[in-house]
Amino acid sequence: MPLVNSLVHRLDPTLDGERLQLTLSPSPASSDASMSQLVNALNDTYNTKPKGWGRFVEEGDAAGPFAVWLHEYQDSTRDFAALTSAMAERLIATLGEQLSVGGYLVFGHLRQGDTDTLFMALAHQREGIGIDEGHQAAPAVLLNTSQLTLALRINLSQWQEGGASTQYVSFLKDRGGKKLGEAMADFLGMQEGIDAPAETRTLLKAFSDYVEKEEFDEAASREKTDTLVDYASEQLKRGEPITLETLSELVDESAPKAFYDHIRNLDYGLSPEIPPDKKTLSQFRRFTGRAGGVSISFDSHLLGSSIEYDENQDRLIIKQVPKQLKEQLVKRKS
């Protein structure tokens, strides 16, 4: 994404290792190709990581200064250097105890179409090998853009629009970093509003119910499952949420509102926009098989819950028989 502004500050542990020392950038970073490549590489890594989602707390003790700073930045009464230095100083004050290593705080104001975002990531150095001017191998210091321990992103456009959105702020929430995640929420002055794994699981459950209700054949079910996963995976790569209305149009072009109406009519409690969870999506595919007059097809996430596989006796146990099939079996038995 194109860079509007960018800047890099440095964090270093003090000699006693008990706190971090901030060294501000002496001048704004140029938004050249190298800086753009760095910010976008960090942003791409961030897209693939588990995140906490939410919005700024507007009142009370939990409300932080971010909304004020961002308003001043948008109104040009606070420049990018002042904004990022204030963020860096607040980070040290609220997260200093949670960070044991330093690095470079990379800030970027990115613009893609009509959407503006503010991105921040703590990038660490790693030792590497390069080629010097004499064409000889030589030690080189590189920034590690593939691993992140701290990062955040604010959708400035969505925040300015206001409304009922609960997910214009996100931050890195990797496993094992619960305290850091809680400290990040305090640092941002935000409240979490979306549980991405739970929302993604509910969406997939709604989709499975929809496929069963509409009684699509095996080929159509597989095609629609692939459509859902492909769209969700693409949104994950872009760092954008799944939009239910768009997904509904893709799942069934002949009835573009059908899946959306199914979700609303059965009240699954889903938000209009859902941040996709990578791990949950990776487990969602369909198992299919046909032999000896038997055709079986089911969503992979049902394995271990409503469907069990007994490998020793080579059999499937279906705990929840589809209504239509159940009616046929009962009728045949009688």
Describe the protein:
- With 334 residues, the protein is α+β, with helices and mostly antiparallel strands.
- It has two domains: 3-194, no CATH class; 196-283, no CATH class.
- The protein is built from eleven helices and 15 strands.
- The strands form four sheets. Strands 1, 2, 3, 4, 5, 6, 7, 8 and 9 form a nine-stranded antiparallel β-sheet that branches. It has a two-stranded antiparallel ribbon with strand order 10-11.
- Helix 2 packs antiparallel against helix 3 (80-95) and helix 3 (80-95) crosses helix 5 (178-188).
- It is elongated, with a radius of gyration of 25 Å.
Features:
2 domains, 39% helix, 11 helices, alpha+beta, two-stranded antiparallel sheet, elongated, 334 residues, nine-stranded antiparallel β-sheet
Summary, kept brief:
With 334 residues, this protein is an alpha+beta fold.
